[in-house]
Amino acid sequence: MEKEKKDVRLAVNVDHFATLRQARRSTEPDPVLVALLAEQAGASGIVTHLRGDRRHIQERDLRLLREIIKTKLNLEMAATEEMKKIALKIKPDVVSLVPERPEELTTEGGLDVRRQEKQLFQFVQLLKKAGIRVSIFVDAIEDQINACCQLGVDLIEINTGRYAELKPGRARDKALEAIKLAASLAEELGLEVHAGHGLDYHNVKPIVAIPQIEELSIGFAIVARSAVVGIDRAVRDMIQLLKRN
Ligand code: PXP
After folding, report:
1. Could you tell me if the CB of 219 is within 6 A of ligand 1?
2. Which of 95, 113, 187 is nearest to 150 (CA)?
3. Domain count, the chain
4. 189 lies in some domain
5. Whether the CB of 26 sits within 6 Å of ligand 1
6. Inside any domain, residue 3
7. Which residues contact 151 (CB under 8 A, 6 or more apart)?
C-alpha cells in the first residue's frame, strides 16, 4: 500500500494587509485580525517581516501577533542589532533571516550566507540560546545550503522567487530542478526544508511535489486574492493546493 504523504503546511505572510493600512496611515485592515482569520481557515503559521523602514508591519503588530496567534509566529528580519533586540524581546517561534535593501520592492534574493558566515554565526547562536528556532532564506545553491548547515540553523527557506517569475518552459524547469537538488541536500544535512517567495495559485503545485518541502511561506498571492474573495476562502483554496494525497 502506498504511504500516506504529509501535506505541505501553509504559513501566511500578512505584511501586505499592513501595506494597505499604511497607504492611508489608517487602522484598517488590521494584520492581527487577518492572522486570526487565516489561522481559523487552517493556516499552520503566520509570517511577518518587520523591516528597518517599517513600511508595513509595525512593532505594535508584532507584539499583538505574539500574544494572540495560536499556531506559530515566524518573524522575518535582517540580521541587524536593532532586530536582534526586538527578536529577543518578542521571542517569535522562528526567526527567518533575510537580506534587506531599503529601496527594494520585496526581498530580492537569498542571504549570502557564505560571505557573512562569521557575523551570522554569533547572531544565530544568540537567537538559538534564547529558544528561538532559526531559519535562513537562501538561494538554491549547494554552497549556500552547506553554509547554512555549518551555522547550525534549524531550517532553511529555499528562495522560489526565480522559479516563480518564469513562465512554464525550459528556464523554469531548470530553476525547479535547482530547488529540488537544494531541498534534497538540505534534508541530507538534517535541515527542515521550507520554501517561498512569489508562489501563487498557478505555480505552487510543482513546488508541492518536492517531497522534502514541509512548509511554504506565501503572502502576496493570498492577500491579493483575499481582496476579491475574502481571507477565509483565499487561505482555504491555497491549502487545497498544498495537499499531497
Ligand atoms: N519568504 C520570504 C523570505 C519573503 O521575504 C517573502 C516576502 O515577504 C515571502 C516568503 C513571501 O513572498 P510572497 O509575498 O511573494 O508570497
Report:
1. yes
2. 113
3. 1
4. yes
5. no
6. no
7. 113, 117, 120, 121, 124, 136
Report which ligand 1 atom has the smallest distance to the Cα of 49. Answer: 8
- Is the entire prediction scored with pTM above 0.70? yes
- The answer to whether position 27 is within a domain reads yes
In a domain, 1, yes or no: no
Q: Which atom of ligand 1 is nearest to the CA of 217?
A: 10
Q: Which residues are catalytic?
A: 49, 76, 197
Q: What is the CATH number of the domain that holds 211?
A: 3.20.20.70
Q: What is the pLDDT of residues 121-175, one digit of tens each?
A: 999 999 999 999 999 999 999 999 999 999 999 999 999 999 999 999 999 999 9
Query: What Å distances lie between residue 101 and 21, 49, 59, 106, 229, CA to CA?
Result: 22, 13, 19, 9, 33
Query: Quick check: CB of 110 below 6 Å from ligand 1?
Result: no
Instruction: Specify the ligand 1 atom closest to the Cα of 96.
Output: 3
The domain containing residue 199 runs over which residues? 9-241
